[in-house]
Amino acid sequence: MKLLSIVGARPQFVKAAVVSTAIERHNSGAKASAKIEQKLIHTGQHYEHNLSGVFFDQLPLPTPDYHLGVGSGPHGAQTAAMLEGLEQVFLQEKPDLTVVYGDTNSTIAGALASAKLHIPVAHVEAGLRSFNRAMPEEMNRVVTDHLSDLLLCPTDTAVKNLHREGIRRGVALTGDVMLDAVRSFQPLAARRADLLDKLGVKPTGYALVTIHRAENTDDLRRLKDILWMLTRLDKPVVFPMHPRLRDRLAKQEGDELRHLLEGSRELRIIEPVSYLDMLLLETNARMILTDSGGVQKESYFVGVPCLTLRDETEWIETLRNSWNRVVGTSPKKILTLAQSIWARNGSAPKGKPDLSQFGGGRAGDRTVRAMVAYLKKGATQSR
């Protein structure tokens, strides 16, 4: 059985590492005829070292067998370049199954190129919906799910979303491989605690912020509101700056925003960090403010309160007991909540996060079992 996994963005590297490790566990106890040959294609969607290369250095992820080197660009041009490169690889490798992850342009390109060549598609993290079609990620999710043959869902909500769209065949509830990753890699991340000293912060003594979605970086008013709020928080803030935001601030219309940030003594603006460093920062933060779906989940997994700088979330499970709150970009609303959470008063989360909603940390093995069962079933039907 030959699988081709397609990755291109940092969350996908982490997910693929979990699945790759689970495949190795499967192979260690499987008969020769049931072993899985896995190959990895890196589209090059993320290409800076801290967004790409460092993941292969730090995580149990094999070196890519193919690197398409697509780079950044408009959605259409980037996806088209991926389609061209992926088709050539598929024709050469002739895989039994293509595995795509999440909701990026690499995801939809992999699913579309595979489906066009009649190669079955498995979608890890299927069924997520924000119900906001203005998000490029939402369109990628919906189209990928309708192209996929095996839909590997992280939560019950994801399964129900697919059922509402008439997708019932090939749906499997596996749990979330990102929870597996957090549990596996937290001990490694803890060894990197000198990063806190370098940043001049102490455990539970800072807020962690990430901003990267187009709805925030490309809307000058929303972006100004978020950045103004950060400068008024009056608490230490660690802010790994995504290249999309950095590029926006470098343009002329970003002058005012740059000056705003430069005037704050509490902001620690740093380059994007590796997964292990990010996990360390998440685990030790007092609270997290983000527009990232992955960071929302990870904050829930490590038990740190989160404010989501968007108008909706696809991870509704994290909203239980106020561990995550969707706050939009109103600076006054965010400031009020953030200060209350910092003080740990009435706005603080209640109880503990319920990780059973995300599969309890065995999603990687369930994912591989679902793939093997699907391929065996197909082989039986073809005889």
Please give a structural write-up.
This protein is α/β, with parallel strands linked by helices and 383 residues long. It has two domains: 2-175 and 362-382, Glycogen Phosphorylase B (Rossmann fold), CATH 3.40.50; 184-358, Rossmann fold (3-Layer(aba) Sandwich). The chain contains 16 helices and 13 strands. The chain has helices spanning 10-29, 53-58, 75-93, 105-116, 136-147, 156-164, 177-190, 194-199, 214-217, 220-232, 243-250, 255-262, 275-284, 293-301, 331-343, 363-382; strands at residues 2-7, 37-42, 66-67, 97-101, 121-124, 150-153, 171-173, 207-210, 237-240, 267-270, 287-290, 306-308, 324-326. The strands form two sheets. A seven-stranded parallel beta sheet has the order 3-2-1-4-5-6-7, sandwiched between helices. α14 links the parallel β11 and β12 (306-308). α3 crosses α4 (105-116). It is globular. 46% of the residues are buried. The mean pLDDT is 92.
Summarize the structure.
48% of the residues lie in helices and 14% in strands.
**CATH level-3 fold name of the largest domain:** Rossmann fold
Number of domains: 2
* Class inferred from helices and paired strands: alpha/beta
CATH superfamily of the largest domain: Glycogen Phosphorylase B
What ranges have pLDDT less than 50 throughout 5 or more consecutive residues? none
Cα-atom radius of gyration:
21 Å
Helicity, in percent?
40-55%
Do you know the CATH architecture of the largest domain? 3-Layer(aba) Sandwich
Summarize the topology.
Blueprint: E1 2-7, H1 10-29, E2 37-42, H2 53-58, E3 66-67, H3 75-93, E4 97-101, H4 105-116, E5 121-124, H5 136-147, E6 150-153, H6 156-164, E7 171-173, H7 177-190, H8 194-199, E8 207-210, H9 214-217, H10 220-232, E9 237-240, H11 243-250, H12 255-262, E10 267-270, H13 275-284, E11 287-290, H14 293-301, E12 306-308, E13 324-326, H15 331-343, H16 363-382
Parallel strand pairs: 1-2, 1-4, 2-3, 4-5, 5-6, 6-7, 8-9, 8-11, 9-10, 11-12, 12-13
Helix pairs in contact: 1-7, 1-16, 3-4, 4-5, 7-13, 10-15
